[in-house]
Each structure stands twice: as structure tokens, then as C-alpha cells.
# Entry
Amino acid sequence: MKISGKIRVAKQKMVRPGGLREMHPHAQEMINVPNQDRAQKIAATLANCINELDALSADVAAAHIDLALQTLRRQFSLGADISESE
# Structure
């Protein structure tokens, strides 16, 4: 099955009775609050890891962690930490 077929199947599952789209918008938002908090804590941990890896001159590992951090921030709509220099 091509990727587009997998996406179509995933969308179909979401609109079935009891799926996410049938939830009240505020109820869905409340469910995501703990995940948002966890994502922020993980983002802080990843940022600390990048600093530690930079101190070790482990540039390749730091780049991988930085990519994971950017992806996490994008997925959970977290703002970039202003104190970090890019």
C-alpha cells in the first residue's frame, strides 16, 4: 500500500463513531494538556543534552538530538527557547 493509501485509511479511522473528530473540541484539548506538559519537559531535557554533547565536541550526536528537538517542538507547537543560540 502506498503512503497516500495509508493516510486515507488513517483518516477513515478518525471519522468512525467514537473517533477523535466526534469529540467536543474542548474535551480533545483537555486530553492533550498532559501531553503538552510532557513534551515541554522532554524538550528541556533534549536542550540540556545538546549542551552536554557540545561540551564533549560530539557534533554529530548533538545534531541528531537538535533535529529531534526541532521535530518535537513542531509536532507539539512549542516555541523555540529564546535563550538558545542557533
Remarks:
- Helices lie at 3-14, 25-55, 59-75.
- The radius of gyration is 18 Å.
- Residues 25-55 form the longest helix (31 residues).
